[in-house]
Amino acid sequence: METQNFKIENAKSSVNWIGKKVTGSHNGTIAIENGNFTFTNGDLTGGNVVIDTTSIKILDVTDPATNQQFAGHLASDDFFSTDKFNTAFLDITSVEKQTADHYFVEGNLTIKAITHPIGFNLEAKTVNNELKASGKIIIDRTKYDMKFRSGNFFTNLGDTLIYNEFELDVALTATLS
Fold it and tell me: Which Pfam families match (predicted)?
């Protein structure tokens, strides 16, 4: 049984987020602090990713003052509480191979020291000593005590309602370590 460990290359990887509300959406990036993927006999079998929540950037708000205010709000206790919790974690608990390079991944996602199971599809291809992985992860923010303007917790929000789910579009590069 051959086990290989691939370490995520932060500079070659990206995580883009999209948050939606009644009147539109916002998007930006967030950085990976570190992580790895484990392959056994050529198949993905595990791994983990650590996200630096202090690195959240908003790309669609171009006015510097508004962008800074929005970033401060995302860092606040209404959302990520980055002063208290500057990282979020994904630990892969199981992997089901779908096709040669496609997997259904289940894991435990921890944000603000709150952990919930999550599942998503991941495409992972290895060529020589490099791994390219990509997927979309949908997260219900309310499970992680991010209830600001959620219709589940507040009424009469009208067009200020923010949808509970946000998306992470992940494109990772990792090298054999």
Answer: YceI
